[in-house]
Amino acid sequence: MSTFHLSRRSVLAGTAVAAAAVSLPLAQGRAQATATPAKNGYRWRGAAQGGTGFITGVLFHPSVKGLAYLRTDIGGAYRWDDRTDRWTPLTDHLGWDDWNLLGVEAMAVDPAHPNRLYLALGTYAQSWAGNGAVLRSEDRGATWKRADLTVKLGANEDGRGCGERLLVDPRDSDTLWLGTRHDGLLKSTDRGATWKAVSFPATPSATGQGITLLVAAGRAVYAGWGDSDGTSANLYRTADGTAWEAVPGQPAGTAAKVPIRAAFDRHTRELYVTYANAPGPNGQSDGSVHKLRTTTGKWTEVTPVKPGGTTADGSADAFGYGGVAVDARRPGTLVVSTNNRWAEIDTVFRSTDGGRTWTSLKDKAVFDVSETPYLKWGGDEPKFGWWIQAVALDPYDSRHIVYGTGATLYGTRDLKRWAPQIRGVEEASIRQLISPPAGEAHLISGSGDIGVMYHERLTASPSRGMASNPVFGTSTGLALAAAKPSYVVRAGWGDNGNGAWSNDGGKTWAPFESQPSMAKSAPGPITTNADGSVLLWSFGTGNPGFRSADNGKSWSEVASFPKGAVPVADPIDPIRFYAFDTTTGTLHASTDSGRTFTARATGLNSGDTEFQLAVAPGRSGDLWLSLKWNGLYRSTDGGATFTKVGSCWASYTLGFGKAAEGASYPALYMVGSTESITAVYRSDDEAKSWTRINDDQHQWGWIGAAISGDPRVYGRVYIATNGRGVQYGEPAR
User: Fold this and answer.
1) Alpha-carbon gap, residue 423 to 434, rounded angstroms
2) Does the annotation mark 449 as catalytic?
3) 307-328: per-residue pLDDT in tens?
4) Whole-prediction pTM
5) What's the N-to-C CA distance of the chain in angstroms?
6) Structural domains in the chain?
7) Given 54, 68, 180, 727, which residue has the most CB atoms within 10 angstroms?
């Protein structure tokens, strides 16, 4: 899927944006009352979509039947249990300040101690990201202890499908190794509690790959090196845990490639290594597979198909090799995957004779994606997959193979029939949320990578899959007409159009007959007025807004619309729109159906790129403005004036739901801070007081994109996460 998921600003579709009358010092904006916890707590679940993100690693436990672990690039780690046929999330406890730790760089298990699990966390290695950390568990991830690192990791950087970069030493369960991208090799001798850099014979470069894999081969440890200059070694080993050396006789041509993954066959004493000319998941055009007989030092090339041929239509068959796994029960049986093979489509090859001959499992594969129909991507049949760098073979079942893609995890138990083995995993980066006041669906979501989904049920992946006609990769805008909720519009990145409308609440779609020229290169947020007769579409910083009054058949520029602003419609009055210009701190309003905009409140907080203007449902001109560091503000006169809400000092996103029994005003839901922590809150009294409704085990990192209550179910709330899909909560009964 997307190579960069991080969303630092996302606005709730169908709401508006306002600003602070004054910018208050932090102390002045603090809450005056303590938020109370929900009386009986909340029950939290993920709205089922089914994967929807890059699976970067899968690890079967070698000593426990039916136990496996899975890692993702931005959505944390999971544990598999055969008894429930489901993955359990293990890192949802990571909170707002630890958002960078939701990316899992590597995993490790201890074959001698089945309950031990280790995770190396850190999403980005950039200067603006925090340092990494290692979590260690003695109960399979039910509880954790944490060791903060002084280096950065890169679970969502290039090369994130390599590895594992974390390993329990085969000679000593108290010793762990961690390969980093920029800081060489780290070692722990106290089961991950503390870490120190140790000598390694290669020097990191600026590529950001460093050590790409660590694997045990008997009592020796091998390390792949991704920063080779093209002539030096890229595979190293230690036999005693102290001295490292380049592995002798490395195959010709591999020095210019990156070792992607490795697996050791303990029966034949052979180490299999996959190579590509780039770390992936993108950019690979060449690769190979080699094996090393560790007892003799003999290398043999066992590449199933060499890249570089020509397809039937004349395209270059360029690709690299990615995953590799060996059969713990059958000597010489293994699987490897191609990666970045767009012309012929990626595959998994299987060999039962040590790589002398191979069979492509794609050729006879039969797929059942009935549980996750979006995998058809608007077509009739699913692809075998892409970005296949995570491949695993069940040590207790030779016919149970799984492989990760950019969107799911496929599994087979007979080498022919494949289906997503993804229950419980939700990794979408959600950008927009709508909970319609009527109709079949209680939720419509807009995401990075998988466009828009119409959720008939929250417990099953949408039966219609992704919204098609056209299919979007990433959704940039989603809104419904407040007085005509059957009318919905969306915008996003698509190959055959960037905007669409629906007259049946989002079940089916039709593309706009035309679109502004900049829609293809910079699609942005879109909204519709209360009765669905007017559309306003914005196209990012510096670009004008456009208006359509004929359902997208024609568009005209709105010269007075603040460039790059997010348009928001009044839910009652169809001639009113609002837009907040953060560059000047000015709220603009239209009272002529979006033809012209004039400034209303001025002197508001400016320059804040994380803001949201929301309009209370069922009320005209009742505006709420969330500002990252300046709290929450309200206007009841259509944006002419704003008053600061004193009950919170930081507000990141705000939404509305059904009013509490006996209350006349909708329930408010907020991701923000009433005291010292960022949490999820509900207010039943127009923000006079707040109740915290999430808990320390349900935090999901950065959740500032969107939040929405359900207008038909009091207490139900939907939260957009950046890597854990849509999380929804309901009061515990």
Assistant:
1) 24
2) yes
3) 998 888 888 999 999 999 999 9
4) 0.94
5) 38
6) 26-44+428-731 (2.130.10.10), 67-420 (2.130.10.10)
7) 54
